Amino acid sequence: MNPRMLVEFVDGCKTMVEMAAIANATGLIPDRPGMHGPACSRDDLNKVLVPDSAGGLLSSNEARVDYTIGKGVAPGVFVVAGAARAAVAIPCGLLTGARVTAPIAKGALITTANARVPEGSRIAALRARQDKMLGL
């Protein structure tokens, strides 16, 4: 591994830059200064990065940005967001070549109700495979 890259992972610079980029892009804020950064596996993200009222460690029911360290995800910055799934929102990374099928208000989610991902999209097929693997 490149020594500079290793240092960026070890001292947290890369994680903090990723967290800031996600926070700026989404308007989400950390749950607390410095975030929590729990040790957590991929399979437990949805149990740990949730409000304490649901058994997790976040103090708020509002959406937050945080990072985790743990097997299979370390280090990683995650946005846990149940609303996107409920609205059947389409991730921005799948929108290349997509078509709008119904009016979309400013600030509204792009969903399967108002847009269509092109048939044969390789990235959409990979995302569908990932969702199936995760039981989504």
Could you walk me through the main structural features you see in this protein, from its secondary elements to its overall organization?
The protein is an alpha+beta fold and 136 residues long. It is built from five helices and five strands. It has a three-stranded mixed beta sheet with strand order 1-2-3, covered by helices on one side. Strand 2 and strand 3 form a beta hairpin. The relative contact order is 0.11.
Strand percentage: 5-15%
- Based on CA atoms alone, the radius of gyration comes out at 17 Å
Structural class: alpha+beta
- List how many beta strands DSSP finds: 5
Terminal-residue CA separation:
34 Å
> Ranges with pLDDT <50 over ≥5 residues?
none
Main sheet record: 3 strands, mixed
Fraction in helix: 25-40%
Spatial strand order of the main sheet: 1-2-3
**Quick one: overall form?**
globular
Mean pLDDT, nearest integer? 81
How many helices in DSSP terms? 5
**Which H/E pattern describes the elements?**
HHEHEEHEEH
